[in-house]
Amino acid sequence: MNVLRVDAEGSLVHAEQARPEPQASELLVEVAYAGVNFADLGTKDGVPGSEVSGVVAAVGEGVSGFAVGDPVVGMRAVGGYAAYTRLPAALATKLPAAVPLDTAASVYTQGLTAYHLLHTAGRVSSGERVLILAGAGGVGSLAIQWARQEQAGIIAVASTPEKRRHASSLGADKAIGYEEVPALGEQAVDLVLDSVGGQSFGDALKVLATYGRIVVYGQAAGSRPELQVGQLIGRCQSVTGFSISLLGLTAPERFRHGVSALLQALAGGTLHPVVEHVYPWREAGEAWSRLRSRQSVGKLLLAFK
Ligand SMILES: NC(=O)c1ccc[n+]([C@@H]2O[C@H](COP(=O)([O-])OP(=O)(O)OC[C@H]3O[C@@H](n4cnc5c(N)ncnc54)[C@H](OP(=O)(O)O)[C@@H]3O)[C@@H](O)[C@H]2O)c1
User: Fold this and answer.
1) What is the pLDDT of residue 9?
2) Is the domain covering 2-95+274-303 a CATH 3.90.180.10 domain?
3) Cross-strand partners of 85
4) How many CB atoms lie within 10 A of CB 80?
5) Superfamily grouping for domain 114-242
6) Which of 2, 114, 122, 219 could form a disulfide with 143 if both were Cys (CB 3.0 to 4.6 A apart)?
7) What is the mean pLDDT of residues 45-74?
8) Can you tell me the mean pLDDT for 240-255?
9) 103 lines ligand 1 (CB under 6 A)
């Protein structure tokens, strides 16, 4: 079968591999679309790709609720940039007829991450002020839309005017550059969604209100934020880490709650996929260079059919 591998120079190259077999608790999926996620860029060796949609080709031992031919979407795929991939059934969802495969792959990982950042990790309540770093990206574009549904006040942070316009069009009340965050002033926001780290984390902490929360879920800037924990005490603030796949594997009911909310929001038209481009799988290198160079807005997909 066709796969895309990362070679020694870090480039994506076409390769042929034997079709895998599903192991216990897994599905084998014939891939229609692979989601391009920021974490994919860190693949050092082997086949990247953690998110796919497609059709179930085989069902592993101990799996119930899925049958060959079912349309599915899932995360934590093993080498998802491939014609077929193994998928943990615990993190897969059988799709209703109303949700096409491209839509599913464009919102699953990022939409569920955004939902649980706000609700599970961030405990957002109506009317709170939320600061969303990388607000025009894949997770950010969906987090703005989820936060809107909570009647939260939304400040999106993005690096270019075009991205800031995009964040505003999705419903952010304000869209600013990273360098403008300190000027928001003390006590400006109740919740921060931080996938950037480094200096941006420190700046966000300075404008965090009493009882405020920062949820850390990525480090796109590459540099680790510094935190003097003593700073948190006087204002009863908290910093929380979050991983969507860990939540899915350890708190399945909570994870499924997000899946139901996602499917309902898609059906009800309250959450709109933001797909910048669907690349044929052989052009995945272009998708990666767009994401790596911070040019992409919303989601990038690879089509395998
Ligand atoms: N923990 C979890 O469960 C989980 C799940 C999904 C994603 N994530 C994390 O969430 C973040 C967003 O993921 P995504 O797939 O939706 O990607 P994305 O937001 O579409 O792309 C990453 C964005 O990060 C910003 N960024 C800031 N500094 C950067 C730098 N030095 N180099 C490149 N980009 C930089 C860029 O936006 P600006 O140009 O506007 O700054 C860029 O567009 C990533 O950090 C990812 O690892 C975590």
Assistant:
1) 87
2) yes
3) 29
4) 33
5) NAD(P)-binding Rossmann-like Domain (3.40.50.720)
6) 114
7) 97
8) 97
9) no
- Our answer on whether the CB atom of 37 is closer than 6 Å to any ligand 1 atom is yes
Lowest mean pLDDT among 28-32, 45-49, 174-178, 192-196: 45-49
Question: Positive or negative CA dihedral for 266, 49, 42, 224?
Answer: positive
Token reading at 111 = 């939409």
Q: How far apart are CA 301 and CA 40, in angstroms?
A: 12
**113 in contact with ligand 1, CB cutoff 6 A:** yes
Burial string for 212-221 (b: 16+ CB within 10 Å, else e) reads bbbbbbbebb
Task: List CB contacts of 49: < 8 A, sequence separation 6 or more.
Answer: 4, 34, 40, 77, 79, 80, 81, 82, 85
- Residue 22: is its pLDDT beyond 90? yes
Q: Whose CA is nearest to atom 35 of ligand 1?
A: 220
pLDDT at position 305 over 90 = no
Look up the pTM and report it.
0.98
Residue ranges per domain, the chain? 2-95+274-303, 114-242
**What is the C-alpha to C-alpha distance for residues 231 and 227, in angstroms, rounded to an integer?**
8
For ligand 1, atom 28, the nearest C-alpha belongs to 221
Q: Is 140 in the pocket of ligand 1 (CB under 6 A)?
A: yes
Average pLDDT of the segment spanning 226-247: 94
Q: Note whether 122 and 143 are within 8 A (CB).
A: no
* Ligand 1 atom 16, closest CA: 138
Average pLDDT score, the chain: 97
